[in-house]
Design a protein that fits this description.
α1 packs antiparallel against α2, α3 packs parallel to α4 and α3 crosses α13. The strands form two sheets. The protein has an eight-stranded parallel barrel, surrounded by five helices. The chain folds into two domains: 57 residues, no CATH class; 243 residues, Alpha-Beta Barrel (TIM Barrel), CATH 3.20.20. The two termini are 33 Å apart. It is globular. It has 311 residues and is an alpha/beta fold. It is 41% helix and 17% strand. It contains 13 helices and ten strands.
Amino acid sequence: EKMKLFSVLAILALASPAAAFLVSKSFAPALKPAMKNSVNLHLGSRSGRQGVRFELAMSGRVPFIAGNWKMNPETVEQALDLAKTVAGLKAKTQAQVAVFVPHPFIAAVRPILEGAGIEVGAQSCFAEQRGAYTGATSTSMIKSVGGKHVLVGHSERRSVFKYTDEMINGMVHKALKDGLCPILCIGETKEEYESKLNKQICAVHLSKGLKGVTKEQMKRVTVAYEPVWAIGTGLVCDPETAQDVHAFVRSWLTSMYDAETAAGVRIQYGGSVTPESVDDLMAKPDIDGCLVGGASLDPAKFARIIAYIPK
């Protein structure tokens, strides 16, 4: 019924945007929150008039800003100091905020960060519960020390530690089984980007990484698009290009699941996110948050990113 109403609104908008807006305001309370910009029509391009944007905003997606400390800092004392500074500078925000810290520091920094409303996650996990897997960390271990989230398939795990899509899929399932919320990282290398294969690579990462994940489970999954060539390099993926890929990801999720499921999945952007770039990124309709690397180690910069102001 909701999709039928969207169709009616779209048709009505073509004739009278103002009328469509009034109808949408009347029916919106009866609809389940589904997606940001559920109806987004750009009119007037063929009539010579300035385009009129009709937008039915029914976002059920809470923005999600995540900081990834990677293999930093060097000691637990430094981690505690960093956590205290981050917690002290955290500004009011409309976003959910989490920090992904090295495994040995999770238990130590969690009370400090959670006291400021910042959740804590792990940077990776393993698909097995226990056993002879030297150096591995299970999802149950992460949960036992208070971790709520876990990064899965970060590009550095794929390239340095040779994680395959099949391994990553196992980690997604294990995280979900043990009650963690996984962030599935996807994205192309510089060579793949220059060959215009970015969407194809993302489709492969999605299809293999989410294999067997149900619609119900997708409510706890976040997808992070991280163009590898923009991670820690200072190279910038412009907001328009990022939005194009994010829209593709949502379209893929629609075809794989359905429109309602796709509308509820948060898609983060990761790749040299800075205080200077975050406002433009977060203004895009399909960018629901950011996965922040180097800037998350600078409390002042991270605080500004958390307090983004969409343009």
